[in-house]
Every structure is written in structure tokens, then in C-alpha cells.
Predict the structure.
Amino acid sequence: MSAPAEGGVPQAAQRPAVGYALHGDIAVATVDNPPVNALSLAVRSGLMAAIGHALADPRVRALVIIGGGATFVAGADINDFGKPYDEPSLYAIIDALMASSKPVIAAIHGSAFGGGLELALACQWRIASPDAQIGQPEVKLGLMPGGGGTQWWTRLAGPEVALAVTTGGHPVAARQAHEWGVIDRIASGPLLEDALAMAQDVVSGTLPARRLSEATDKIRDVDPALFDAFREKNARKWKGQLAPRKIVDCIEAACRVSFAEGFRLEKEAFRECEHSYQCRALIHLFFAERAAGKLRDASRATAAPVRTAGVIGAGTMGAGIAMSFANAGIPVTLLDTSEEALLRGMKTITANYATSVSRGSLPQAKADAALQRIQTATGWSALADADLIVEAVFEDLAVKQDVFRRLDGIAKPDAVLATNTSTLDVDAIAGATTRPDRVVGLHFFSPANVMRLLEVVRGPRTGAAALTTALGVAKTLRKISVIAGNAYGFIGNRILGAYGREADFLLEEGATPAQIDRVLTDFGFPMGLFAMRDMAGLDVIWRIRRQENLTRPAHLRYSPIADRICEMGRFGQKTGRGYYLYKGREAIPDPEIETLIAGVSAELGIVRRDIPDTEILDRLLCAMVNEGARILEEGVAQRAGDIDVVYVNGYGFPASRGGPMQWAVETGLASVYQRVLALHRQHGEYWTPSPLLAKTAACGQDWDSAAAPAP
Ligand code: NAD
């Protein structure tokens, strides 16, 4: 190793990723890799060099590692997961820190997550700013701590805390971590000064020398039943997930074996997680969510600030949308046709806030402030100053066009006018105004104040300024926005239509609602399709279907089961009966429905058969993928990942499987294509394979490359 350089470790780059300086007899290594000081190769090399210099320099008695800029090392670089490690790896740094003959103190401000925290845990001492946060969020990406995290947390804070922190993945405040013994000191002044003072305490012996890897006080006499009880308690939540189970195994091992052996087991388990489908799926979603709200073409404009908003319609959606604005600090005026409708809406809103307060998820003061931001009105002039107005009235084109005509008369010229329609043509709604370029779809999901997904619908005449402003406000509302083209059902409901239709056909062929729902929940959906329909209410979509039936091509297969159920007055949970019978919220299979379905099969001349679960799953997932491929080739979605983001965040597709398009990639696009083709031969037109699916299967291209227009 080259000789120590005062004031900086030699680096190929102009600005060293890790600065090095002497403060008397204490060396300070400052990580400088904006924006979050991720553990890139340059940072790892810089840290190794800094440790080497500190050890080699006889003047240095201790080393402080601190972050430059806004944070300590916030974590590993997600792009590095699943790839071979370039040396020096985090492991090499941890080994060097553990073997260091001179004490090393980590000084944490901002956040220290994942590998960044493990870097700090490998130091002998940790000091943190009072507002710092630490955590092991790996589990959220299908991973687990891999740099000794499970072993250190167990030895420092005991197995119960270690289990909660590492399987939960949530950030922990520095003060809490201090109480648990994971942080040794909370800084009371400037962090570097306090860290240098702490280093002097260590050097002078005021703080005794220690080897954390040999600490055993928190792992002695641990009841082994603790781990099985924890596994059992979380069995349902962790269904099909590898990482949290592996974490428990490693924490259990930490209580039994040496640190070195525990660390070895953790590395092995980490590798397994890193190469799992779940990890690939969750990392795919991580990047897909960040990409989804970005326009691929050059039609970007500057987002105008949204300082005030209006919402028209104080029903189910309007109330939730108004809450979303109020929660984000944007004053909002809620308009409806009568005081009575407004009172009903405000009652819902007040009750929702009261529930959040009583559950402890929202402080009373915040609830009060949010409520204060919601005004009501019946007169349209109240919306004249709003920067953005969202319409959420009945799903009826004539009603919505009338609303937009009126809005055109009162809204200021640069206001963005948005419709929350689920099924109607955004362009036909925009056509009711003299400013169709200012009209955009904002398709919120129910409950709108809770669900994070937002389909931002770009009509053919939607202007770049309105679209960019809508995307900007979505960020303020903390929504995950996905840009969708103006096609029937946009992205989510269009796919729901395709796989819902297949589920109806499966009923006719021999399955039951309970069987299909079980197959979906076994796959990882939180609830089955028929239970979901019952929850949403069957009458709304029935009304839409009756309209559509007037123009439906007669040669296409059509299942009358859903209509028959509605004709019996069974509208789902709200009437206590739908596909199931309801005792409270408990869904009970109903023989009357099974008889109805069998009757439809007989009428249609279909001989019912036992349908294997595998066939049900295959047909439902392949229907989603084939429709998803059509959506992509038509440009209704910009990217395959957008479809996955919609399905995971709006329709309960299990995140650990990455969404339907990622499921197809994992399954093999050629294999999915063959299955769709076979279903096409057997079941006809609906199963015509999408040309894009055929293309990806034939040339091995990924979805987005295959969908890109030829240069
Ligand atoms: P809702 O029936 O609960 O509420 C509609 C409200 O609009 C009522 O309060 C009504 O008084 C008011 N209204 C009707 N005409 C009006 C007018 N001309 N001027 C002012 N107010 C008027 O309906 P909802 O479920 O909230 O749905 C509203 C819209 O949101 C529909 O377009 C629907 O398709 C869409 N949507 C609904 C859901 C859902 O799950 N409910 C999800 C996404 C989108």
C-alpha cells in the first residue's frame, strides 16, 4: 500500500470518493459520493485505503468514518445486487474493520441503511445525530442483511429486537437505537466534533476497548421457542417469501454459534435470496415504480405548481380524492349538487380521519389541519381559482360532458381539468371544453386517500403542460403514477376485463368461485377475483355491461353468469349476497350460486369437468399477459414495467412475483406464447396471441425492446 497522504487518499477520480484527513491523532475518512453516499466500488476502495492509511500511520490512534453531504452511507448500490462483487467488497471492508488494531468510530447523520449500516456496525463504536435513522430495509427487496446485520443486531440488541428490525425493514430512529444499545452515543453538538471527542475517550480508555463479535450478554439463555413462535405468527404474511424466513434462521443461529460461523451462514443465505425470483421481482418493481411516472417521449414541459384544488362529486371517490389533497397540504374545495350530498361526503371524510386518529396512525392536530383544508360548495364559482380540478361524478358520459362544459366557463385558463372516469373516453370528455389540451385523466383507485396507484391518462389532445403538471401533483400526493393511453379500461381495468372473462369461462367449464379465488390467494393475491367483485359491488359494472352488450359482437363467447347473479338482486357485500353469502365480512360459498352456474353450463351445452388448479392459474395469468402485451404494443402503456406497477399496486398481484409481465419473463416468454397459442386453438378468438408476445418469443427480445418502434 502506498504511503499515507495527508489530506486525501490518492484517487484516479478528480474528487476522492472518500476524503482522508488527520485531526491531531485521529484520522477522519469522509465518504463523498452524492447523492446518498452509496457503497460504490470507488467508495469501497476509498474506505479500504483510508483504513490502510490509518493503520500504517503511527501518528494515528483512532479512525472516524463519517458521511459528507446530507447523509452517512445510505446503503449499497441496488444495481450491484445479483452481480459478481468487484473487490474490495463490503466483506473485505468489514473484515478489515473487525481486524483493526486501532479503534474505528462510525459517525452517523441522515441515514445508515443496509450495507451502510453494516459498515457502521462493523466499527467498534457508533455515534449518531439525534435525527439520524438506521435500518435494514433489505427484506423489502427480497433480500436480507448480508454484511453481518443479523449477527450484530442480535448481539447488540437481542434476538427480539433483531427479528423485528430485520424482518420488518422499517427505519429506526437514532434515539431508539441508542436505547437498544446499537448506537453508543447521541451527539449533542456538531457530529464531527462529538465523534472526535468520542475517539479521544476511546483512545484514553474512558470508553473501554471491546470486541462486539465476542459480546454474548444479549444472546445468553434465549428461549429457542421464541423463533418458532415468530415464524408461526408471521406464516401467513410471509407466504411464499424466502428472505424473512432466512433472516429468522440466521438470528436463531446467532444465539447458538460463533460470530464467524453465524456470519458465514448469513452470507450463504444472502446469496440464496439474492438469486431468488422474489428478489429479482422486487428489484424490478423498485426500478419500475421510479420509471412509471416519467414520459418516454420528448413532450415534457415544466410542471406548474398546484396551490389549490377542486373536486367535483362528494361521493366515494370524490371524498377520498379531497382527502388526498388535504393530506398533502393542498387546500381543496369539494363541490356537489346539494348540501345534503356534501354533508354525506364530509361525514365520510370526518369519520375516516377519526378512525386514523383512534388507530394512532395520525395525530389529532394533523387530522384537524387536514380537515381545515377542505371547503365545500354548491356554487361553481368556488372553483374559479383552483389550479387543478378533478371531476368524480357519476360514470355517465353526458353527465361528465355537462360538468366539463360548466367547468370550461368558470375555471381559470391555465387550470388543469381532470376526470376520474374508469371507463369513458377522456377525449370525448375533453371535447366538451374549448381547451382539450388542459384535460387529463386522473384515475384514482378506491379508497383514493389510501391507494397509492394513480393512472394518469393522456388523451390524444392532452397537452404536455397539463400532463406534466398532473404528474407533478401526483408526486406531491405521494402517489405512484403510471401514464396510460386513452383506451377503454386504460391499463388496469382492461387487463381485469380479460382475466375476469377467463375466470367466468372457467366457471362455466366446471370451476367454482371458491376454487378460482383459492388458486389466486394461493398464488399470493390478498383476495380472489370473485370476492373482490363482491366487495366492489356488482351493480356498477352490470350497468356498464348492459350498455356494452348493445354493441358486443354476437359471435364472441359471452358468459351470462355475472348478469344472472345481478338479476337476482345479489350485488355483493352491500346486499349480503353476491358470488358468496356474507356473514359480516366472511364469504361463504353458496349452493344457490353453484346451481345457477351449473344451470348456465347446461344451457350452453358445456359438459362440466374437474379443472385442475394449475390450469386455472395458467389461464388467468396467461390472459393477463396476453392482454398486457396488447396494451404495450398499442402504446397504451409505455413500458412492460408500468403494467406490473399497476397490477401490484392496484390489483393485488403479489409483489414478490413482480407483476404479470415479469411473471411471464420468469416463466419464459416462449413458453407463455406456446400456452397462449394452445389456448387459442382450443378456445378461439379471445386467445389470439398478441403479435408482441409472438415477437418476443421468436426473437428472445425483452418486452420493451420488442415494443420499441423500429429505428
Ligand atoms: P358516487 O356515486 O359515490 O359519487 C358521485 C357523486 O357525484 C355524488 O355525490 C353525486 O351527488 C355527485 N354528482 C353527480 N352529478 C353531479 C354533478 N353534475 N355535479 C356535481 N356533483 C355531481 O360515485 P363514485 O364511486 O365516487 O364514482 C365517481 C367516479 O369515479 C366515476 O366516474 C367512477 O367510475 C370513478 N371511479 C370509481 C371508483 C370506485 O371504486 N368507486 C374507482 C375509480 C374511479
About this structure: The pocket of nicotinamide-adenine-dinucleotide is lined by residues 312-318, 335-337, 341, 392-395, 399, 403, 420-422, 444, 446 (CB under 6 Å). The chain has 29 helices and 19 strands.
